Amino acid sequence: MRILFRTAVWSAALFAALVATVLASTTVGSVNLDIGTVARAVLNTLAYPSGVSVESSQLGLGERVVQVPVPDISYTRPFGFEVAETDQIIVQKIRLPRIALGAVVGFALGTAGAVMQGFFRNPMADPSIIGVSSGAAVGAVATIAFPVAIPFGLQTAAFFGAVLSAFGVYFLATEDGRTPVATLLLAGLAVQTFLGAVVSFLLLRSGEGLEEAILWLMGTLRYSNWGHVEATLPLAVLFFIILLVYARDLNVMLLGEEEALALGIEVERTKRLLLVASALITAAAVAVAGIIGFVGLVIPHIMRLLVGPDHRILVPTSALAGATFLVLADTVARAGTAMPVGIVTAAVGAPFFLFLLRNREVHAL
Amino acid sequence: MIRLDGVDLSLAGTDVLDGVSLSVERGEFVALVGPNGAGKTTLLRAIQGILDPDAGRVTLGGERVSDLSASAVGRRVATVPQDTSVGFSFTAEQVVEMGRTPHRSRLDWSDDTDTVEAAMERTGTLPFRERVVDSLSGGERQRVVLARALAQEPDGLLLDEPTANLDINHQIQVLELVSELVCEGRAALAAIHDLDLAARLCDRLLLLSDGRVRARGPPGRVLADPTLADAFDTETAVSRNRVTGTHRITALPDRPDRSGRVHVVGGGAGGVTTLRTLWRAGYEVSLGPVPEGDVAASLAADLGLRTVTAPAFEQPADSECAAARDLARTADTLVVAGHDAGVVADRADEVPHVRVDLGGSGLRRTAGDGGETRVVGSETELLAAVDTYMNG
Q1: Nearest CA in chain B to A363
Q2: Distance in angstroms (rounded) separating the CA atoms of residues A172 and A185
Q3: Which of B55, B295, B339, B385 has the most CB atoms in a 10 Å sphere around its CB?
Q4: Is A34 among the domain residues?
Q5: Are A133 and A127 in contact (CB under 8 A)?
Q6: Is there a domain that residue B256 lies in?
Q7: Residues B276 and B233 placed together within one structural domain of the fold
């Protein structure tokens, strides 16, 4: 039970750090708020789903109008502290959606990064390696270049672009039901290159949308809202749980596939599951935040130095550290120059990674 | 425990295993020997269920491998691979603990400390339990992997060249440990390329060549089997290791072709050198009479030469003298290694022969009446003299 204990302690500590970071980040902005106000406003914002009713909504299909049942979830807010209305609005409507989305995206990228580095037994692996990011980029830039009028059109297109691209890479690399990791890596590279060309072409055609497209490609949380959080959080939590359940299998797979099989792991099935869950959790993150680099690469490395290689502790700590890191980076992005957060993560992450490389043993896995 | 019946298996269109049948029971340590590319690793992989046979069946404890889940196979047999680099900085203890995988559910995060510690105690790996596996030496790491196999609590062990990367002392340690585990009632099947080690520590050998089982049985029998030399495409000599008393095999160098038979008279160190020189030069060699137990006699036996021996410290019996004389008479050249041509002296005096004095003991020219005799003092001279006689 040592591993369970260590995981619990580390996760609790990192969760506390995340909460503190979120609160501190919420005080930062054009209007200065004190931490007490922020804490009360954040608690006021907390809600849990308390009931589901089904409403019907009208959807136009050509000339016909179809009644579509839509689940409507009602939320209950357990807290009602006294907070000035403007402060509550600043926290609840402006700052918190962005911060919460940053936390969810960082959580997802940290999880996927830890799993992908283990899966590929390669320190250079990050969530984009199986073509997820470039697929999302194609979907997102395509909807910017050729706008469609559906709600969350860009996010939906990016999500499905990511998923299609990841599955494309998987099927290209699979032969006779076996997916060699090296083939997967190479197929991922080739698909990324190809999709990069598609994105460049779409950028040329995007006209007035060019700035928006480039901002998205750099990774930004600027356009976030609670809808994004509500769509992303359940996916992130679901796939995180699945990946955590398979963390022990991932440990054994690090010994090599044949040894993992000899130790009773159904290797091909486990690989498929890990890939699908990692691709979906990454797709959910990049769909709402664009391509944010370095979180999925650096955070798992740092956590591996701190907690060791066992994925049962590495995956949850990387997730929580990724969330904290992205909230911090986005605070810098918001407070300073309104840069895309992707620039901050790369600008802060790369030197820090180099520092680790020079001072600690990061050159090997 | 481990059983194959008529297993055929082809990889990428090439037949790798062809009608292989074998069984390894509990308490048996069987070595799989054979040249590179014989199909040893493929055979082990078929037993693990990594490869499916095209025909025939592989069973573990009576159940077909193809019907068993990976974890059910993992509870029955553990595998010790040749290459044991791990990657990522797992500690020795974490690696051993992974051996518990087939016994535990995915959500069971407990340590299984008792089993893990017992396995590490057994393999002498407890002293470095906290050390990162990749910082261990090859021998230590191989013992960690063996501990992991033990933690699996299997009935059978499959070992693929478990000693290939180890020093000579660690080779013995690892295989002796396997041997002990077998004595406790496990079955072990090991692909081992070192035939001497295999003969020394295993109960039975199984010679695999070109995907077929060519010979099987106790080490002495398999090593002496002519199919072994064919399988390895080299001449071999089987002898006994004087220290361990077990069989030892030596692959012999390629010999040039020389026709003709040389009969050698005389034993001892001089006889041995003479035999070796002539045999390596490519001549057919016969020997006799020599005392039983003479070093030359045992070399001749190892090389499978025709030899006449007589009881030590006795005059050769008439029948032995006659046999030796026959060999000498039908030989193309006679070499006398030592002072005395002994019982074939009359013959030696009649025909041209070479006297060898490799000890430098001052052998004088003692040409007989009828024959031309040369006295030589070195291996080169010996060979040159014999070559001269042979070529007329």
Answers
A1: B88
A2: 11
A3: B385
A4: yes
A5: yes
A6: no
A7: no
Q: Are residues B271 and B218 part of one domain?
A: no
What number is the average pLDDT over the span A220-228? 87
CATH of the domain at A237: 1.10.3470.10
Residue at B73 is within a domain: yes
Residue of A1, A261, A364 with shortest CB distance to B50? A261
Q: Is B75 on the interface with A (CB under 8 A)?
A: yes
**B250 in any annotated domain:** no
**Distance from C-alpha of B54 to C-alpha of B64, rounded to nearest angstrom:** 14
Which residue's structure tokens are 């003299």? B385
All residues of chain B having their beta carbon less than 8 Å from the beta carbon of residue A248 are 101, 106, 109
Mean pLDDT computed over B155-174 = 86
Our CA-based measurement puts residue B18 at a distance from the nearest CA of chain A, in whole angstroms, of 23
Q: Is A69 contained in some domain?
A: no
Are residues B46 and B179 located together in one domain of the fold? yes
State yes or no: cis peptide before B289, omega within 30 of 0.
yes
Range of the domain at A111: 2-50+89-359
What mean pLDDT is reported for chain A?
87
Question: Is the pLDDT confidence value at B362 over 60?
Answer: no
Q: Does residue B192 belong to any structural domain of this protein?
A: yes
| pLDDT (0 to 100) of residue A215 | 86
Task: Report how many domains make up chain A.
Answer: 1
DSSP, residue by residue, B206-231 = EEEETTEEEEEESHHHHHH-HHHHHH
Chain B contact set for A118 (CB, 8 A): 88
How many domains would you assign to chain B? 2
Chain A nearest C-alpha distance from B33 (Å): 22
Contact criterion met (CB < 8 Å) for B111 and A261: no
In terms of domains, do B97 and B60 share one?
Answer: yes
User: How confident is the prediction for chain B on average, in pLDDT?
Assistant: 83
User: Does some domain include residue A338?
Assistant: yes
Contact (CB<8Å) B95/A255 = yes
Q: Do residues B211 and B17 lie in contact, with contact meaning Cβ atoms separated by under 8 Å?
A: yes
Greater model confidence, B312 or A286:
A286
Interface residue ranges in chain A relative to chain B, Cβ cutoff 8 Å: 1-4, 118, 121, 245-246, 248-249, 251-252, 254-256, 258-259, 261-267, 304, 308-310, 312, 364-365
CA distance B84 to chain A (A): 8
Q: For residue A55, is pLDDT > 80?
A: no
B308 backbone φψ class: left, alpha, beta (φ>0; ψ -120 to 50): beta
Report pLDDT for B364. 37
Provide the domain limits for residue B39: 2-237
Do A252 and B89 lie within an 8 Å CB cutoff?
no
Q: What is the ipTM of this complex?
A: 0.81
The yes-or-no verdict on residue B365 having pLDDT over 70 is: no
At residue A99's C-alpha, the angle toward residues A306 and A220, to 5°, is 95
Residue B260's Cβ-count burial label (10 Å; 0-12, 13-18, 19+) is middle
CA distance B95 to B109: 14
pLDDT digits (tens, 9 = 90+) for B106-155: 888 887 889 999 999 988 899 999 998 888 888 888 889 999 999 999 99
Q: What are the chain B neighbours of A304 within 8 Å (beta carbons)?
A: 88-89
Mutant choice from B41, B69, B109 vs A, greatest count of A C-beta within 10 A? B109
Specify if A267 maps to a domain.
yes
Q: Are residues B331 and B227 in the same domain?
A: no
Question: Are residues B226 and B280 both part of a single domain?
Answer: no
Q: Which of A254, A262, A364 sits opposite B78 (nearest CB)?
A: A262
pLDDT in tens, B263-302: 888 888 888 888 888 888 889 899 878 888 888 888 888 8
pLDDT at B361: 40
**For residue B50, which of B141, B154, B160 has the smallest C-alpha distance?**
B160
B231 shares a domain with B129: yes
